[in-house]
Each structure stands twice: as structure tokens, then as C-alpha cells.
Amino acid sequence: MKRDSRVRTGLTILWALSPLLTAGLASPIIFTHVALRLRRWAHWLAAAGYLALESAVFATVEADPGTAGDVIFSIGAVVSVLGGTAHAFAVRGRVFARRDAVAFDQAQGEIRRRRELRARAHEIARRDPQTALEMRIGRPDLPRGFDDGGLVDVNHAPAHVLAQGLGITLEQAERLVEARERCDGFVSAEEAAALTGLPPSLTPRLAEYGVYLP
């Protein structure tokens, strides 16, 4: 396993050195590969840039010393060779990242994205509860076109939705339903937890995933 890892590392280093080993000829190819792997427009632009540099180098290869063409040739060659090599080493880790590491990064990114969606939906509910009701924020059981990041309307959603969305038992969710009917709805996670006797450890979840609309 260690030998395979060393071979893999050696091959990726050779990949990054290819602009240097080919006098810059590999730079456009390398960054086309980078763009295909990472799928970002910046890398497509880099590939196009290196291709343009190589075209300029070939066009000025026979330029007389001291002429503008000679300057273009020199600059193009240096950037394509040394710049391409340095650039390849800079992105090597991302291009050849192991699948589990990529999956972990994607999962983290999705968690952050969902958290931001919840924060935005919470802000809508705070500023304009009526709009939040019309958008059906916190009601995954109803048809809607707005992604609220997984919020649950604690004052209106049925028990099974509360259980699933808040990560609590159905019995705890039914206690929430009974208590909200008695007090005509909760105003906060703290009140909901206090009036239902739920464990204090659940209050942060009630605050993050719950929305309390009138």
C-alpha cells in the first residue's frame, strides 16, 4: 500500500514537472486536464492562456536578437515553462485528491450551504412572518419552491414532520404539538423546550432547525 502511494506521488510530481521537461509544450495540455478535473472556468482560461503563449513562442522562435519578437519569445518561454511548472505544482494536490477527501470537502460544503439557507430563512421569518408563512418556510410537508435549508415550523408542522426535521422522537414531537395548542404557539426554542419538558440538550436543535411563526 505504501509502495502504491509512493508510485502515485511520483507520477503526480512527474505530471507537475511536465511543463519544464517539455520546454512548456505540455502546459496547455496539463491545464486542459486540470480544467476537466476541477471544472472551473479559471482553469479553462489558464489553459487558453498557456496555449496562446505557446503559439506566440512558435511564431517568434526565429526572431532576431533584440527585436520585439525576441522579447515576446523570451517572456513566453519563461512563463510557459517556469510559470506552468509552478502553477501545476500549486494545483497538483487538488487535481489528484483522493476520492474520500473530495467527498469530505463536498460534504462540508453542503453543510455550510444548508446552514446559510437556514440563516436566510430565519431572517425572513424574523422580519416578515407573513411572507415566511406564504413561502411555507418550515413546511417540507407542503408543496413549495423555496429551499429553507431544512427548517421546521414548530407552531404549524405535524408531529411526524417535527420528529424528522428536529431529530427528536415522535413522542417528543407529539408533546410539542400538545403544548403549542395549549399556549397558542411558541415564540422561541427556549419556551418550546421549557413548556414540553424536553431535555435541555435539544434546545440548540430547536433553535437551529425550528422556526416559530405566529
From TrEMBL:
Pfam families in the cross-refs: T2SSK
Naturally occurring in which organism (per UniProt): Actinomadura rubrobrunea
Residue span(s) of domain T2SS protein K second SAM-like: 152-199
Recorded superkingdom: Bacteria
Transmembrane stretches, start-end: 71-91
Signal peptide positions on this chain: none
Protein name from the UniProt record: T2SS protein K second SAM-like domain-containing protein
Family annotation (InterPro entries): RuvA_2-like, T2SSK_SAM-like_2nd
Keywords, comma-separated and alphabetical: Membrane, Transmembrane, Transmembrane helix
